[in-house]
Each structure stands twice: as structure tokens, then as C-alpha cells.
Task: structure prediction
Amino acid sequence: MKKALVLGASGGMGYSIVKELSCRGISVIAFARNKERLEKLFGNDENVDIFKGDIFQVDDLKAAAQGVDVIFQSANIPYKDWESKLLSFMTNIVQTAKEYSAKLVLVDNIYAYGRSTGRKVSESTEKNPHTKKGKIRLQLENIVKSSEVEALIAHFPDFYGPNAENTILHFTLQKVVENKKASYVGNKQIPREFIYTPDGAKAIVELATNEKAYGQNWNIPGVDVISGNEIVEIIREVSGYQKSVSTISKNMIRFLGLFSANMREVVEMFYLNEEPVVLDGEKYESLIGSIPRTPYRKGLQETLDYMKRKNII
Result:
């Protein structure tokens, strides 16, 4: 891989993918709508070229993709727009990759797997989505697999890490950084899985540089499951935060949904806080080797430090 395009470069995983590619000496085109944000994130990186574009405009995608070997799709849009926009967006990405004979690497979530079976989910587990958004994710996968584009799809648990702002843990961490009363989404006693975005970026870039990885799905798990109580305890230890951390329940989100279209969509996915889906990474380890796994304590410390520096700047 000599040159890559990262869609959604200003988001949590996109940011870490750009950083990982650049650290490996790979030329990167960082694509997002907000040029000022891109310049703040990557303006001093000589390996990164900034491209201000609209992910829904196929002409923007094609202009950005000229001369690239691999397109990383890490862009996301609000839940409320998934049904009307996500499928056409993916069709445009596939069309662009096909036109330039570029490989396609998709950052995906766990929605298409459906409800937890109580066991770790492997790539051979049948996808049986029971939610609207899970069914849409499966449709996206089918669009990619039915195309002639060389592609790989990587499934991740919920993210946390530097610049990963559109995540449930960021909601908690932001209040900690502000030293305000924080809240945690879901039952703090139920263990679930999170992945530190720099770890996820290392793993997906390793896959993208391996020819054998294409034409397949891959699960990229985090360190292990961890409860909300354990997360709060780590946060207190590394930051000195002393305020109480309340719980945001499904009923609270349902109430907020009366006033917010995005909150109405969040309710459907709340099952992941009650019946967590946990990924099996054995397939990845068989081909690539050990999955990068930053301990939660170190990852949370580094995330909080990043957020504090950003607040100062």
C-alpha cells in the first residue's frame, strides 16, 4: 500500500487510522466535510493531504480517490439518516473503488450479529439482526460482497480513544474532564466490550496490508469485557475524579426520544447494554498474530489526557 484514502478522517476511528498509516510512512488523503477540523488534526503531518468533501457526493469521492490503493470507509452519519442515506452512500463508495481499482476496507460495528447468544461471536456465526439498524448494516455488507471490488470488513465493539467523540464512553469522559457530574449509559454492573481506537487502527491496517485478508469478514475484539463500575473506578484512580456517576437507563433515553430524533433511534440499540455481544478474535490471530490490546487503565488515561489537552488548546 503506497497511498490510502480515509473517509471520515475526522472521526474517532478515522483519525486513528490516518495516524497509523502515516506512522508507517504511507501517504494518506484525509477526507471529511470540515476542512478546519482536518487541519487541526493533521495539518502538521507531511504524510497527510487534506480533502474537504461531502461523503454523499460521488464526484467528491472520485476526486479524492484518484491514485489511491486502498479506501478505508470509517465515515458515519446520525442514526436518523441511516435508512434514507446509508445504502446510497455505500453504493457510491463501491462505485468509486471499482472505477479506480482500489481495495476497500470497511470499519463496521456488531449490529448485524443481532442478539447475544451468551458465547463469543466468531466470523462464522450466522448474522441474524433483529433491529432496523442491524438489518441496514447487513444490507451494506451484501452491497460490498456482491460487487467486484476487493474488500474486507472488520467488525469492532464500541470505541473509545483520542478524538472518538461520538461514543457512549465519551459521554461519560467529557463530564469527567469538565469535573462535572457524569453519567454512564446502561447498567454499570454488566460487563461489556470496548476497543481503544489506536488498537483498532493498528489491527485494521495490518489486515489491509495482507492480501489474504480480502474477501472476508474479521472480528477485532478489545482487551476483554469490563463493567461500568470497573471503568468508573479506573477513571477515579487515573484522574482523581470524585463526583458521583449516575446511570442512564433505557426509559430515560426513551423519554429524551420524545424531543430528539437521534435519541429515538438510540433506544433500539440499548439491548447492547443489557445483552452485550462479545467478539472472538481467533481468526485474526491465526492469520496476523496477536491483536493489539492496550489495557483499559492505560487507554482511559491516554484518552483523558488527549481530551484535557484539546480543551486547553
